[in-house]
Amino acid sequence: MHKLILRPGRERSLKRRHPWIFSGAVGRVDGEPGRGDTVEVRSSGGEFLAVAAYSPSSQIRARVWDWKERAIDAGFFRERILRASKLRSALLESGMTDAVRLVHGESDGLPGVTADRYRDIVVLQLTSAGAERWRAEITDALLQASGAATVWDRSDTEVRALEGMEPRTGLLHGAPLPETLILHEHDLSFRVEIERGHKTGFYLDQRDNRLRLRAMASGCEVLDCFCYSGGFALNALAGGARAVTAVDSSGAALELARANAESNRLPAAEWVEGDVFQVLRRFRDQGRVFDRVVLDPPKFAPTGAQAERAARAYKDINLLAFKLLRPGGALMTFSCSGGISADLFQKIVAGAALDAGVDARIADWLHAAADHPVTLNFPEGEYLKGLLCRVAQ
Ligand code: SAH
User: Fold this and answer.
1) Does a structural domain hold residue 14?
2) Which residues 6+ apart lie within 8 Å of 282 measured at CB?
C-alpha cells in the first residue's frame, strides 16, 4: 500500500484521533497514490497510525478512514453506513420526522460523505477525494442500509474545488425524482426541492430549534430572518403566533415558503423579499418591534480566514435584531460558520447586545439535531452554534 510518512512530531493530533492530516505535517509519500486512493499513515519513526484517503490537491492532504490496519473496500462502507443508519432509526420511528441525516461525515467515521434521507430518497453529497473514489460502494451501502429506492447525487458544493473535483449532480440509482417531494416534520409538511434547493434540499439540522420556537410563539409577533422554505416561520404559525414576518433574499425560497404555509392551512404571514441587512434597518427606521426574532443566516465564514469579516456581519444583524425586540422578547440566533467558534459567537452576540443597549441573558445554547452528531475527537463537527437570548423586561 502507498505510504504517507509524517514529519517528526506531527503524529500528535492523529494520536488524539483527529481525522485530518494537513499538508504541512507530511514528510514524504512512498509510492504514487492517486486522488482518493487509500494510504497507510506512519510516523517518522515508522509507527502505524491510520489508513486514510489521499487528497493530492487539498490542504487537508489525507482523511482517516480507520485507526487500525484494515482493508478499505465495499465491506468497510457497508459496516460504517449500517452503523450510522442504526443511530437514526429511533428518530425515524419516533414519528417526529420522515427526513433525517443518515451520514454526517467525520462524525460517522466517513469523512467527506453526507447523506440525507427524504422518505425513500437518499440525497448524497461527496466533498472529499476519498469519498468520491468510493461513490459506487457508498451508494450500494446506502441502499442496503436504508431500504431506500433512489440515491440522488447533489455533490455540487464549492468545497469540492479545494479537492480538485468538479461539481456533480444526477441520479445514482433508482427511479427519477418525483415532481414534488413532501417531507413531514413535527406534523408540518414541507416541499423539498432536491435538484435545485439549498444543501440537499432542506435544513434538517434546525429540526429541534424550530420546535423550540413553536413552543414559545403563542400570541407573539415573530420575525424569521433568512427563512428559506419557511422552517421557523411555519412553526411559529403552528405555535399560535399573532403575526409572522419572514425575510429571504431568494424569491424562489419565499415562493416555496408561502406554498408550504398554504398547504399546511396556516394563517397568512408577511413574506418579505430582500437583504436582511437592509430589511432590518428599514424595520428599525419604521419603529417596528417583535417579540421573537430568529437569525439563521448562511455561512458567513466557511473557514477561519473569513472570520473577521464574518464577525462584523454577525454583529451587525444581531445588533439590529436586539433593537427590534420588545422588552421581555427573545432572540434565537445562529452561526453555521466553521470559522466562528462557539466562544467567539457568544462574544459577538454579547457585543451586539451591549451596543444595542439591551440587557440580555443566555436562556440556552442551541445545537444541531441529534442526527448531526459531534464526536469528541472532531469538534469541527459542531458547525451549528445557536444562542437563545432573553431581553430584560
Ligand atoms: N432558516 C432556514 C434556513 C436558512 S438558510 C430553515 O429553517 O430552513 C439561509 C437562507 O438565507 C437562504 O434561504 C438564503 O437564500 C438566504 N440569504 C442569504 N443571504 C441573505 C441575505 N443577505 N438576506 C436575506 N436572505 C439571505
Assistant:
1) yes
2) none
